[in-house]
Amino acid sequence: MDRRGFLFGAATVTAGGLLGYAGGHPAAARDAPRVAPPRSPRPTGDWLADLADDTPVARLSLPGTQHSAVRFGGAQVARQRRTIAEQLDLGIRFLDIGCRSSHSAFAVHHGAVFQRVLFGEVLLACEAFLRARPSETVLLRLRQEHSAVPDAEFRRVFDLYQAGFRRLLRLDATLPTLGQARGRVVLLADHPKLPGVPYGDAALFDVQDDATAPPAVKYQRVERHLRKAAARPGKLYVNYVGTAVQGSPRANARYLNPRVHRFLTGPHGRRLTGLGVVAMDFPDATPALVHTIIRRNQRAATAAGAA
Asked: pTM of the full predicted structure?
C-alpha cells in the first residue's frame, strides 16, 4: 500500500470517517486564510526567512498551540478553532499532538474524545506548508493520549509514519539551529521509545505546564516563565498559556491571552527576547499576541547585529 493509501485507509478507526484539515485535502493546506501582521516585514507564512541559519532554535520566540488539533468535544474540551494548516499560516511554529494507537494508526485524541483526524493528516499539513515555505520549521511534540498500548507497539506504529515521511521528520536527539531545521518537522519525543529530541529532558527543556492552575494563578506562572526564558538562555523554554480550570478553555483564553500580550508590550516585558515556545489556546482570537511573539525575533536579531 502506498503512503496515501496507508494514511487514509486507516480511517477505519472511526465508523463515521474523518474530517480532514483545511477541507480534507492536502493541497488545501496552501489555501488556508492568512492573517497579515501589522508592522511586520513579512507575512506570518514565512516569518523565519529573515533570521540567520546559525540561530539556535532554543533562542527563538515561537508562537505555538496547546492541544493543537483539539477542535471537537464541546466547550469544555475544544482548545482550537483553526485547523493545523490554518495555524501554520497564522504563524504558529509549535504543535502539541496527543495520539491514541489504534488499528496500526495514530488517532489524535484529547482524553476519550477522538478529534476526527489522524497523525498522518497532521504530517501532510506540515509537509504541504513546508514545501511551499522551505524557510520555515515546525516543532512537534508527540505523546501518547488515551492509549495504553505497550511502548514497543507505540514505536512500531510510529515507524510506519516515519517510513512515509523520512525527508520531513528531523529525528536527531539534539536541538538544531534554524538552518538545520528549515523545511523539516523537528520531533519533540514525549515518549520513551520515540526518536527525536527527548521532550522534558531537564538538560534541554524548561517547561511550564500547570494545567490545574486557576486563570489568575496561571497568568502569574506564564509571566514568570517568560521572564526566566529571557534571563537564563541555554534551554528551550516551553510555556503553556491555557487552562481549563474555573471556566472553559475558550473563556480562559479570552482572559489569559490579552494579559500576556499586555505584559509583552508593556514596560516590564517589551524588551524581553528569546521567549522560547509560547503555546496558546485559541491564538486566532488574539492575533496581536502571535505577531508580538514573532517580532521578538526581529528585535533579537537587530540587537545581535549591533553587538
From this structure: 0.88
